[in-house]
Amino acid sequence: MIPKRFFVTGAKATSPVSKLNAFDLALKNAGIAQCNLVQVSSILPPGCKEEKLSKLPAGSIVFSVVARMDGDEGATIGAGVSWTWEKQRRFGIVAESHGHFNEKSLEKILARKIDEMAEIRDIRIDSPKSKVEAMCVPRASFGCVFAALVFCP
């Protein structure tokens, strides 16, 4: 299976009940709560087109490069993905990162990861794009931040 299309999404959410419920709400906020995510690594196939968020049928199994961070009250949490193409567009690369980071820190980390991935492959790349989510988890809550590059079925 070689995907022909992808989109990028992300969101953040909190729950007074659990980290799982915060994650569930983050998926809803990201527009993909009704999908079954299968985590994959970090290569965009040639000719794969980026598009806006697609409404996928409930129960769809979708392959995704996922970044997720959960946290308890008071924690700063962040997650993000970054993607770019090799200059001749033979393929693209995707990096993900998560941790106790704000948005600015995540952007820097993702840029370093993409640069090293290009260096490992000995390729020149276009300017990367990124999607990051970060938050300080409010009192008496659990939090989740989530970002994903989703391949369309």
Give the gist of this structure:
20% of the residues lie in helices and 44% in strands.
Write the layout of secondary structure elements.
Blueprint: E1 5-15, H1 19-30, E2 36-39, E3 43-44, E4 49-50, E5 61-72, E6 76-85, E7 92-99, H2 103-121, E8 129-136, E9 142-151
Parallel strand pairs: 1-4, 2-5
Antiparallel strand pairs: 1-9, 3-7, 5-9, 6-7, 6-8
Structure description:
The chain is α+β, with helices and mostly antiparallel strands and 153 residues long. It is 20% helix and 44% strand. The chain has one domain (5-151): 3-Layer(bba) Sandwich (Pyruvoyl-Dependent Histidine Decarboxylase, Chain B). The N and C termini lie close together (9 Å).
Q: Give the DSSP E fraction (strand runs of 2 or more residues).
A: 35-45%
CATH level-two architecture: 3-Layer(bba) Sandwich
Main beta-sheet annotation: 5 strands, mixed
Rg, Å, rounded: 16 Å
N- to C-terminal separation?
9 Å
What structural class do you assign from the helix and strand content?
A: alpha+beta
Give unreliable regions as ranges: none
Write out key terms for the chains shown.
153 residues; Pyruvoyl-Dependent Histidine Decarboxylase, Chain B; 4-stranded antiparallel sheet
